[in-house]
Write a structure and sequence with these properties.
By secondary structure, the protein is of the alpha/beta class. The protein is about 35% helix and about 20% strand. Helix 5 runs parallel beside helix 6 and helix 10 runs parallel beside helix 11. The chain starts with 10 loop residues before the first strand and ends with a helix.
Amino acid sequence: MNVSNINTDFYEVTNPDEWQGRVDSVTDLDQFRYHQVVHCTDINHVKDEFELALLGFSSDEGVKRNQGRTGAAGGPAAFRKAISSLCWQGEESGFQDVGNIFVPDGRLEEAQLELGKAVHYLLGNGIKPFIIGGGHETAYGHFSGIASFLMETNPEAKLGILNIDAHFDLRPHNGIPHSGSPFLQAFEYAQQEDFDLDYFVYGINPANNTKSLFRTAEELGVGFCTNREIQDKEEESLNRVESFLRSRTHIYLTVCLDVFKASIVPGVSAPAWNGIELQHALRVFDLVKKSDKMLSMDICELNPSLDQDQKTAKLAGSLFSEWLS
């Protein structure tokens, strides 16, 4: 097994007390809930018998730099709390929670580096990472780990980033990355490293993306479907996603919760008044799972300080459950 070299200044093991919930039985697996099957593990002692690992990225520094509403640093803890009592439908072995990467004193760039190292390490041990953010600055650290892993193990790989999001997140950063810049940074990384990268966004809201961003997307060859296209011509939109999946050898799936309409996800920095429905995203999930190409996934922009009755956290949990199934 590979050895983790994560800087402990940026890492913490999950306290098992974060996983609390209803108990219907202590012996009958068929009545177990998530908190009864999770294994809180130090990432330095990760267990390779598990195919999956949950890792938090407790950050809203990128949102702060992007002049958004902060609070997403609390996303991982809120996510664990919200899903603890969900009914477990998986194998008896359960899944492992390998803790959090956090951002001390605003040191986002260093924390992204540590997240990338953690993702590379998990993939190198045959474990699929699921990252719960955190702002969408999570994505650049996540991507860098995937890219470094693929360059080391499969130089001919063609990575596709499939982003279910209302925003392109291709904004310039002038050397100071933020929650609006992760995929521009990914393209910059790919160009520098001669890495084969393509990018597709599902759910773009034109009212939330400037003409300049559309030009950047065109220059970079980014494919996308708008919210209206998905709502009015879903089958055609899904066909475009399927074509994108066929063109890539590996997929990194990232979901920004602000893509959904605000009535079902109030707990985000930039709520959408005309967002997509949960079932729209689930149909994309079906295509990704059918492709058997997904390497890793994250969910970003869960802001518990703005949530109502855990709606946003529970929707994120339903996406996690779908990923596990």
